[in-house]
Amino acid sequence: MEPVFDQSIAQEIKSNKPPPRKKLREHLKDITKLKGNPTHIAFSFALGIFIGFSPFYGLHTIIALIFVYFFRLNALTTVVGAWVNMPFTAPFVYALCYAVGSWMSGSISKKTYVWTELNWELFWIRFGEIAWQITLGWIIIGTIASILGFLILRASIIYYRNIKSKR
What is the pLDDT of residues 16-47, one digit of tens each? Predict the structure, then answer.
């Protein structure tokens, strides 16, 4: 028996192309079109950014949704802000957080380890120190990024709404 091939299915598959990628400016316009207080929308986004920089990788969306539920934030902008730290940016974000945390705590390690020296005992000895440094760096970098995100988004929303009201 020969398989039956329906041409309409083939056309449907061809037409189901992924949507074209939007430029950052177009995404920003979409967010600025949300109804609500610009400060509330921008604060939700800023909190999402702060959560996105946290060392609790893999739990960012869940944490963001918990904050949305308890503090009645804008769900879309909070989750989008939490997604700032994606798998391809995470190594750079956590390296920056570690570097800033190490510098702020004054414990920049000058010792380098040879791969043959690494073992589980050394890992657990250093784990607490590294976790503290990343957390300290997260608080500093996350706060700066959140403030910038808040200011940029709030200004964008107000600017877009002023342009729209003049039309």
Answer: 555 556 665 676 677 888 889 999 999 999 99
The DSSP code sequence of 35-52 is -S-HHHHHHHHHHHHHHH
Question: What residues does each domain of the chain span?
Answer: 32-166
Among 144, 129, 60, smallest CA distance to 98 is for 129
User: Is the full-model pTM beyond 0.85?
Assistant: no
